[in-house]
TrEMBL record:
<keyword id="KW-0732">Signal</keyword>
<feature type="signal peptide">
    <location>
        <begin position="1"/>
        <end position="26"/>
    </location>
</feature>
<protein>
    <recommendedName>
        <fullName>Copper(I)-binding protein</fullName>
    </recommendedName>
</protein>
Amino acid sequence: MSRTATTGGLIAVAALALTACSPVTTLEPYAASDGVRVVWDEDDTSIRGENVLLLTAEAGAEARMVGGLTNLTSEATEITAAFSDGTLIDTFPLEAGETLLLDGEATRDVLIEASPVAPGENASVVFTTPTLGAVEVSVPVLDATLAEYEDYVP
C-alpha cells in the first residue's frame, strides 16, 4: 500500500472520529432572529416566548414589543411582561395550545409609552406566569436601521 493511501486513510479516520465528538448544535433551541427566547425551564418549554424584542427610535420614545408567546399546556395561562423597575408592559392571556403573535398589527400590537434604553442596548424585562413564577430576560432594543423593522418602529 502506498504512503499516500495510508495517509489519506488516517485522515479520513481522524475526521470521522472528530465528527463523532462534536455536539449536534442544530438540535439545541435558539433564537432564530434578532430577538430572544423566553423560557422558565430549559427542560420544559411548553410555555415560552420566541424572538422577543423591542423597537424604538430612541431612549424615552414610544416602543413596540414584537415576538411570539406560546402556551402548549392543556390549561389556559397568562404571561405578564414588565420592565425590571416594575413598569408594566402588558398581560397576555393564552388559551391552552395557543401562540399569540405580538406582530404590531391585527393579532396584537404592544405599544410601550417610553423605552427605558436606546437602540443597540438591552432592556431588562421580567416575564411572569402564575404557575412558573418570574424570569428576567435581556431583551434587545432595535431601531429602523434594518429595513424589516422600518414599519414597526413607532
